[in-house]
């Protein structure tokens, strides 16, 4: 038979901690707003009694839950994990819970995740990028909570945006290769028919090359980034231009695959071919040669979003906001 036990209430926690129920409620919403002594007593009572706060119950009284919905397109890219981790670290300290969803770059999946999150009356919604289906945009524009679009800046955000210009990141990659004397360029990407931000980097790359009178090919592989995709992309690029001497990859995973394929083919990097990636993932500094790449600040994006949400929800409010977290080129051995 299922074992039953008494449902622990907030009033039980307050009694055990010798504080008022309103102090317990404040602690659950904003832990730093109560004294250290009261906070320690409440935390101890929660642990002893096994109390689990009902976030929706608190949300009904305030018309919102203490949930922040976060939707990302992929967990193959580790920098999204850095953003969510930084966001969660700050928000959890203020009594918020992050409800996380992954779309795998599917617009219908994003729509369903947004609907599911909004059904919880979230304190805020966070989505990746500025491009969404018309139905998703309509839901978010009508949502009774702040909406933050992350990892991209551009025209017409729904509400708030935190990130950087991918078009400018692509231009910066091209400028770097052109400064190194490279004249036969290509941007090699994976799944760019769905990853709009990668395509914007590709377009920026080609646009910058054109300012120097250089034509840069944009070549896309329809499947996710992998060593297999990198080999296919390099083969295609070399068939178009055997004299290719500089490539930008849509992410570091693809760039690493390009280094592997160059080694297999006997192409010397960077003497014969320069390679630049995107993401500055952990392996980039330790590949052979080490990988020149663009470093976005994923953790800073998460921190800025968390503070923005706290400012809005806790009454300090901000008007429509765009926060540019920038990027840098990390020059290493491959370019």
Q: What does this entry show, briefly?
A:
The chain is of the alpha/beta class and 335 residues long. The protein has helices spanning 10-17, 21-29, 36-49, 55-62, 78-92, 107-118, 134-141, 166-179, 196-211, 227-240, 252-265, 298-313, and strands at 67-72, 97-102, 124-128, 147-150, 160-163, 185-190, 216-221, 246-249, 274-278, 292-296, 322-324, 327-330. It has 3 domains: 10-53, no CATH class; 65-165 and 298-328, 3-Layer(aba) Sandwich (Rossmann fold), CATH 3.40.50; 166-295, 3-Layer(aba) Sandwich (Rossmann fold), CATH 3.40.50.
Distance between the termini: 67 Å
Instruction: Give a short account of the largest sheet.
Output: 6 strands, parallel
CATH topology of the largest domain: Rossmann fold
CATH architecture of the largest domain: 3-Layer(aba) Sandwich
Number of strands: 12
This entry's quaternary arrangement is single chain
Rg computed from alpha carbons, rounded to a whole number of angstroms: 24 Å
Give the low-pLDDT segments: 1-5
What name goes with the CATH superfamily of the largest domain? Answer: Response regulator
- Percentage of β-strand residues: 15-25%
Mean pLDDT: 90
InterPro entries: HTH_LacI (IPR000843), LacI/GalR-like_sensor (IPR046335), Lambda_DNA-bd_dom_sf (IPR010982), Peripla_BP_I (IPR028082)
Keywords: DNA-binding, Transcription, Transcription regulation
Protein name: LacI family DNA-binding transcriptional regulator
GO molecular function: DNA binding
